[in-house]
Write a structure and sequence with these properties.
single chain; Dihydrodipicolinate Reductase, domain 2; 2 domains; 8-stranded mixed β-sheet; 9 helices
């Protein structure tokens, strides 16, 4: 049995807590969160320093800017860490955490849980096996209208950019399936909620293997397109089963999550579909991730550690920085 602690009682933290409670090889030590308004009947702690019980690992689901400090504190106590994405709020914090972990016996795993989806792993394998030849382009859409209450009275009021909350998942998905991203160019959309916060935009990117790609994103527009809606992975988001990513290659194309394969040898003949048997999840990705965290604590190599997740963070911060700089420039011009 592994003694696990969950830190952070927000939406994702409570899902982690429930997964630990349901796991036959885990014992929940408790929840670390200073907010007394969180209603739960598990043991409560306001800080890691209050925990005196034996702990094997900590799932850190606190706000992003706290990740590095909390993971470093846990590592200092010899506890293994599963850190929610993004791995940290800044590149400096992520690199500092990586150095701290290298000098400790603590093992790390980062919660880019999409990597545990069976269809995602199937897609990665098929692309690497050359199912559609050499990849040429990839297009991805993530768009939904988040409720206004999502941003009210919390850290998201000013810091709720979909780049760091949502797009960071899509960036990691692209890195995992297509390859390393070498360059990005970002354009911001209109801010419709009258808030000083990124809401929508478009990203063009180049990959080291020569593939080019685009992402269109918005948290202010309802749509059927997005990873959560397409896969049904998040119980808080309605499921549409619509594709949200389209990949072309030199000998075909494939769309996700339906795993629809297209072939077309001649431009004068319509491309045809070929049925693929889609891989199905045995359990939820969070449960798969928890299984893997247990294995990592016992010595298995992590599917994504702090160093790997830092590369995803670097791309997300580049996009965020470009969008913020463009907005500041536009603001200065308006007030000049």
């Amino acid at each position: 049995m592994k003694n696990l602690l969950v830190m952070g009682g927000g939406l994702i933290g409570m899902r982690h807590l429930q997964a630990v409670q349901a796991h036959p090889s885990c014992r929940l030590v408790g929840l670390v969160d200073p907010d007394p308004a969180i209603q739960t009947d598990v043991p409560r702690f306001s800080a890691l320093s209050e925990v005196a019980e034996p702990v094997d690992g900590v799932i850190i689901a606190t706000p992003t800017h706290m990740h590095a400090a909390h993971a470093t504190e846990a590592a200092a106590r010899g506890w293994h860490v599963l850190i929610e994405k993004p791995v940290a709020g800044t590149l400096r914090d992520a690199q500092s955490l990586e150095r701290a972990l290298r000098t400790s016996s603590t093992r790390s795993l980062v919660g880019h849980h999409r990597r545990y989806h069976a269809p995602v792993q199937q897609l990665r394998n098929l692309l690497h096996e050359g199912l559609i030849g050499r990849t040429v382009t990839v297009s991805l859409i993530w768009a939904m209208r988040k409720p206004d209450a999502y941003f009210d009275g919390n850290w998201r009021t000013a810091g709720g950019s979909p780049v760091m909350i949502n797009l960071v998942h899509d960036i990691d998905l692209l890195r995992f399936c297509i390859g390393e991203i070498s360059e990005v160019v970002a354009l911001g959309g209109a801010r419709l909620r009258d808030a000083d916060r990124i809401e929508s935009g478009a990203v063009a990117m180049a990959f080291e293997n020569g593939t080019t790609g685009t992402i269109s994103f918005a948290d202010s527009a309802p749509s059927p397109w997005g990873f959560e809606a397409g896969t049904g992975e998040n119980p808080n988001i309605g499921t549409t089963h619509q594709d949200m990513m389209w990949i072309t290659g030199t000998s075909g194309a494939i769309s996700f999550p339906s795993m629809t394969l297209w072939r077309g040898e001649k431009w004068s003949t319509a491309a045809r579909t070929i049925r693929l048997e889609k891989a199905e999840n045995r359990q939820t990705p969070l449960q798969e991730q928890l299984d893997h965290f247990i294995a990592v604590m016992e010595g298995a190599p992590p599917l994504i550690d702090v160093a790997d997740a830092t590369r995803t963070l670097e791309v997300a911060l580049d996009i965020e920085g470009q969008l913020s700089a463009a907005e500041q420039k536009d603001r200065n011009l308006r007030h000049a």
